[in-house]
Design a protein that fits this description.
This protein is α/β, with parallel strands linked by helices. The chain is about 30% helix and about 25% strand. The chain has five helices and eleven strands; from the N terminus they run E-H-E-E-H-E-H-E-H-E-E-E-E-E-H-E. The strands form two sheets. Strands 1, 2, 3, 4, 5, 6, 8, 9 and 11 form a nine-stranded mixed sheet that branches. A two-stranded parallel ribbon has the order 7-10. Helix 4 links the parallel strand 5 and strand 6. It starts with a strand and ends with a strand.
């Protein structure tokens, strides 16, 4: 089993990833801002994902990094991503899997990001811009990265057939995607080398 450095593991998608990692018998080094009781299989590091020392402590002795961090108006991903890249290189960790957004997939009709075109249904682009910067940093890092790019996330089971595709969204008639399905894809990326070096869209047909 592997040791996983997990960021964003207390969020609504991250907690599902954490649950599956523990079910598979992996050991998790979890960075969290809130103290939590001891739980078998988890090493808790208290701190913030924008703090260099906390990020380095979390990555140390890990085999793989997973991030389900969201973004905010403070551009947390743009701050976190250079730190985690630096930490991974220092500790010789090469594999990272992150959860982004479908807005940073390539548009169907141009080389632009989806969020820069009419394909995206969102009027605000602040979060997508932060995700795009994080993707670009990973793309240029030399690390074995995968960025999973879901459409609208829901807590319920998916309503429709799941469509997984590289670089572009697999349908122009996209629907919402279950957080559980995203977590399953994160775990699938452990063993599926086809996704290394790619943005991976995940959605349903609306």
């Amino acid at each position: 089993m592997s040791t996983i450095a997990l960021f964003g593991g207390s969020g609504r998608t991250g907690e599902r990833v954490l649950e599956r990692l523990l079910e598979k018998g992996h050991r998790v080094r979890l960075l969290t801002r809130q103290p939590m009781g001891s739980k078998e299989g988890i090493d808790v590091i208290l701190g913030n994902a924008t703090d260099r020392d906390a990020v380095f402590e979390t990555v140390q002795s890990a085999d793989i990094v997973i991030s389900a961090l969201g973004t905010d108006k403070q551009n947390v991903l743009s701050t976190f991503t250079p730190l985690v890249i630096e930490a991974m290189k220092q500790f010789n960790v090469t594999r990272i899997i992150t959860v982004g957004t479908a807005g940073i997939l390539k548009a169907h009709d141009s080389d632009n990001y989806r969020f820069e075109t009419k394909e995206s249904k969102r009027s605000m682009t602040t979060a997508a811009e932060d995700h795009a910067r994080a993707y670009e940093l990973l793309r240029d890092s030399g690390l074995a990265f995968t960025v999973i790019c879901p459409t609208q996330l829901i807590n319920e089971p998916s309503n429709g057939d799941i469509i997984v595709s590289k670089e572009v969204l697999g349908t122009k008639q996209s629907g919402p995607i279950s957080r559980d399905d995203v977590a399953e894809l994160v775990l699938d990326c452990f063993t599926n080398d086809d996704y290394v070096g790619h943005r991976v869209g995940i959605t349903t047909e609306s």
